[in-house]
Amino acid sequence: MSNVNQDGWSKVKERLRVEVGDDVYSSWFARMDLEAIEDGTVRLSVPTRFLKSWIQSHYAERVLACWQAQEANVGRIELIVRSAVLKTTVQPKPKAELMAGAGDIGNRFNGNGHGRPMAVSDPGVHEALGGSPLDARLTFESFVVGRSNTLAQAAARQVANGLRGDPVMFNPLYIHAGVGLGKTHLLQAITWAGNAAGERKVLYLTAEKFMYGFVSALRTQTALAFKEALRGIGVLVIDDLQFLQGKSTQAEFCHTLNALIDAGRQVVIASDRPPNELESLDDRVRSRLAGGLVVEMSGLGEELRLEILKVRVQAARSHHPSFDVPLPVLSYIAKTVTHNGRDLEGALNRLLAHSKLTGHAVTLEMAEREVRDLIRPQEPKRVKIEDIQRVVARQYNVSRSDLLSSRRTANVVRPRQVAMYLAKTLTLRSLPEIGRRFGGRDHTTVLHAVRKIEGLVGNDMALAEEIEILKRQLQE
Question: CATH: 2.40.128, 2.40.50, 1.10.8, 3.30.1560. Which one for 302-374?
Answer without folding.
Answer: 1.10.8
